[in-house]
Amino acid sequence: MAISSVPKTNAPPPGTAGISVRDLSVHYGNFEALKDVNLSIEAGLVTALVGPSGCGKSSFLHSLNRLTDLVPGCKVKGSVRFGNGGESCGPGVDVLALRRRVGMVFQKPNPFPQSIRRNFEIPLREHGVRRKEISEVIEKCLRDVGLWDEVSDRLDRSAMALSGGQQQRLCIARALALDPDVILFDEPCSALDPMASAVVEEHIAALRGRITVAIVTHNLAQARRISDRVAVFWIRNGSGTIIEHGPTKEVFSNPVDPSSRCYLEGGCG
Amino acid sequence: MTSLISSRFTTRRSRVQDWLFGGIGAIASLVTLGALGWILADLVKMGLPHLSVEFFTADMKSAGREGGIGPMIVSTFLILVCFLFPAIPLGVGCAFWLSEYVQGGSRIARAVTGGVDLLASVPSIVFGLFGMSFFCQVLGLGFSILSGGLTLTCMVLPILVRTTLSAMTSLPPDLRPAAGALGLTRATTLWQILLPAALPGIMIGITLGVGRALAETAALLFTSGYSTRWPESIHDSGRAISVHIYDLAMNIPNGGGKASASALVLLLMILAINLVASLLADRCLKSQYIS
Amino acid sequence: MCRLRVDWLVRHVLGLLAVVAGGLVLVIVWYLFQGAKPALESGLPRRFFGDPEWQPGSVRDPQYGLVPMLAGSFLVTVFATALATPLGIAGAVFYQFYVPARVSRWNLRCMELLAGMPAVVLGFWGLMVVVPAISRLEPPGQSLLAAALVLALMILPIIALTSQAALSAVPLSHLQAAAGLGIGRAGMIWNIALPAAKGGIGSGVLLALARAIGETLVVVMLCGNIAQIPGSVFDPIRPVTSTIALEMGYATASHKALLYAGGLILVLVIGLLVGGLSFRRKPNHNTVH
Predict the structure, then answer these.
(1) Distances (CA, A) of A50 to A191, A212, A219
(2) What is the ipTM of this complex?
């Protein structure tokens, strides 16, 4: 957590991990939500995942940190590797350790209905952080999302009393507290008003260089603003897949696939 | 012109019907509330003169015609303790397992919920019959406070399971993925996040269960026994307040006064329990909407 | 991983508790069945319906006629439900459609109080008030009528509460549609609200019926406890539940087995009623939503 900001085009710093996904498919019962997805998410950069609703972006994200395990009847096939680590898809993986390395922030802010402090204490204690160190971590992470000055005097009050934007930043801070290599954002701004959304977006952009970020968004302007690379999802033959990916500038200025050209120019999707 | 006349006719008819429906409803309600008021008034009228501090603490005299209900209050309290001790882990644990560890539609989940629902339909006298021969005779616990409490556990278990289950299913659905994404185990998620959030709802279930247990007589008649001595341990026989009322009413001539005083006490206890439950329910609603 | 071991342990302990809770009813039914077995095996079943009387304790000439008790249970249950159903439904309609919600809430509280009233208190009150009143009309007072009246009072809140819940669940848009067609309040209740709430009200009545069959205390205190088929509502009766309550303290051998058989019958009848109810409720849900 040493580097605080890195220019947009810099090479990936050491200590973060990219993700390489090969031939990933996701099934819910008989329904194939995602088919043969190949993507490498570069370390330390922000990768935006865009595309129309229902084309498997969220399923893709949830299969990276194995949250799909919690969905009854969901099967994931293929290969997912973080950095130089081993295979994280399939049986025999320490899922809890994986989820510690790969944080996630959801569409709707979901703090635990307890005090702000408990929101950090529960996961930190679970992962063996000593009690003495916890308040230090809380302060650092809350400062990272610009929340410290707003809540430092009411850490023991309910997290549910915060505004939507504050709750979402708390969730980001909570994910940061576990010192992950990767954070997955699942439409983190779509439940927020524009002002709060801008603040959250700013803090996500500030993670560049420190942490690998994958963000699902429906807001193309947002994808353009904050991402280094972009992947466009589309439905082909009834299941979702990636039809185009590359550096944000290139994909937006000169899309190759006709569907993605149409989508990115705002015509369809 | 014809249409105007017929419309006036229908209006009048519908007004008569309206009065008729309202009148029947009002009479029905009056009968019901009147009966309730009558019962309460009678109990207060007959029971209040016998109420005093001594009534709560003193020993029973002359087979119940004189004296107080001190031993019965203690026995009732001990029976409740013996009932809650196994009932809470069993009921709450069952509901936790149903809501967190199995899918709602799976065969085993349906079997367990079906079993609990059937248990809820078993009449209390059958629990009494079962308790008498299983806890008292087979397990050798005899007519004791412990046997009575365990019998009540069987009887009230479905209430606990159902209320806990509904408290768990009404939790915000995004708590579980939130916990999962932080790498928490299911056990930690359950104890540290879901349990605190569902606690008010679970407490409502427990208070309702206590209310039901206090009111019960048939299941206790032949399990906790009739003894009117001060209980020294949970292996002693002890007479619950409800059993005391039954005994006074059925077997003791001129026991009516003390019986109504005891009934008044029992009723007040149940009212207090219901008040606690509704306060908890209010708090439950508030915490859902405000925070 | 220690954490995973804890997780495993918690899962299995909770699973064990759930299986115990879910299996308890099987244990009870199996136990009743074991207890009732001697009565079912020794050629007694023929005498259940053949013997005219219930004298299982008699040494010289035991009589095992169950018919008077089954009739008693049936009569007191049906009588009480028939009394409580119109009162409960009419009251629910009144408080749902004729009375402001603020007042209605107080009625709800009262119904909850009545529902939570211990059976022994109701039975005691019946003994002090209802029985003397009936005995003035026609002695002895402890009778089918006394038990049915108080039992009706006891199950009334079940019907009233479920009926009002069912009526309040009728979509407002249905009622608005009726009002928009110029249909009056009574017509709206009769033609729209009651038919739409039929299922819920029916479940409430069946639930009340199930409760009444199994009720013991009110019945044992008020019905007079003479095993006979009553000639009129003023005659004493002795339903199955009060037979068990009165005799299980001293019954032995085949007499005891008969009490288990009575308990088994109760559980089966009520189980069928309630089971049928939950069976019926499911297709309903699909059509409503």
Answers:
(1) 17, 17, 8
(2) 0.89
